[in-house]
Amino acid sequence: xxxxxxxxxxxxxxxxxxxxxxxxxxxxxxxxxxxxxxxxxxxxxxxxxxxxxxxxxxxxxxxxxxxxxxxxxxxxxxxxxxxxxxxxxxxxxxxxxxxxxxxxxxxxxxxxxxxxxxxxxxxxxxxxxxxxxxxxxxxxxxxxxxxxxxxxxxxxxxxxxxxxxxxxxxxxxxxxxxxxxxxxxxxxxxxxxxxxxxxxxxxxxxxxxxxxxxxxxxxxxxxxxxxxxxxxxxxxxxxxxxxxxxxxxxxxxxxxxxxxxxxxxxxxxxxxxxxxxxxxxxxxxxxxxxxxxxxxxxxxxxxxxxxxxx
Length: 310
Ligand SMILES: Nc1nc2c(ncn2[C@@H]2O[C@H](COP(=O)(O)OP(=O)(O)OP(=O)(O)O)[C@@H](O)[C@H]2O)c(=O)[nH]1
Hints:
The chain is α/β, with parallel strands linked by helices and 310 residues long. Helix content is 52%, strand content 13%. It has helices spanning 3-15, 17-30, 38-50, 55-69, 76-91, 119-132, 147-160, 173-186, 203-220, 238-250, 269-277, 298-306, and strands at 107-112, 137-142, 164-165, 191-196, 227-233, 255-259, 281-285, 293-294. It has an eight-stranded mixed beta sheet with strand order 3-2-4-1-5-6-7-8, with helices on both faces. Bound molecules: guanosine-5'-triphosphate. Guanosine-5'-triphosphate binds at residues 113, 115-121, 149, 152, 198, 259-260, 262-263, 285-288, 292. Residues 113, 115-121, 149, 152, 198, 259-260, 262-263, 285-288, 292 line the site of guanosine-5'-triphosphate. This is Signal recognition particle receptor FtsY. InterPro entries: AAA+_ATPase, P-loop_NTPase, Signal_recog_particl_SRP54_hlx, SR_rcpt_FtsY, SRP/SRP_N, SRP54_GTPase_dom, SRP54_N_sf. GO terms for molecular function: GTP binding; GTPase activity; signal recognition particle binding. It is an enzyme of class 3 (hydrolase).
């Protein structure tokens, strides 16, 4: 295994410790009897719900455990393995890295999400990921609503060494995006990542702004934006699900990135999101450094969430 890969696995399993220990403590703590009975199954289901996997997923896992283990000797590792396999089956179809395959270039990726979700950091981490794959990357500071957002993105752009197109605070976001696409096209850039304002408080304004960005983009390239990626903060738990619902309504979300899985005992929310919406999940964030965002392997992630050995 390469050093890089081993490092990522450490961060993945380490980052998800809070989620997995909540789940495994619950499961190992309850299995005190000789045979698995209905009460144990109820407790397992409660533990799964408490980890934010969602009632549907919890019920499905409970059924699987009941089918194979009811009235049999209790084997915590066997139960954990069922949890892992069920989670992996839900995650496998949605684990989809963001591929750069747009022609003509650039591929335009709109990044949306509420303030504080980790949007800016995620843009920097994605840019870093693409740079590692030798793509030419450019950023566009389309969140013109707050000067801080423009400044923060610029700091990241300078740090990772990618060009950035900005406009004045309070300026026209679509104008910034227009300039960025023109410049990216002229410079033969492969990927243009666009930050957007996360004003969910005013759905109408957000919708209008995104629609205008789309119109402007469409004039330069009818295929753009190629991706509309919604960034979600795992620590918000069930709230992340309502954000998906709302953003699906205002923007044509094509995929998700879930951040802060390390800061939370609610990592199960990723599984709940996959089960409920079936949208591609491009990458997960398990820390604050630039390397802490990666596409994931469904089985590895399921093992990390269910508390299996690395
Ligand atoms: N632990 C952890 N922290 C993260 C992760 N991703 C982002 N953060 C942190 O979350 C905070 C908010 O991230 P930003 O990228 O500034 O979020 P934003 O959505 O752009 O927020 P605003 O700038 O407020 O709009 C920062 O302190 C990040 O370092 C992650 O995967 N894990």
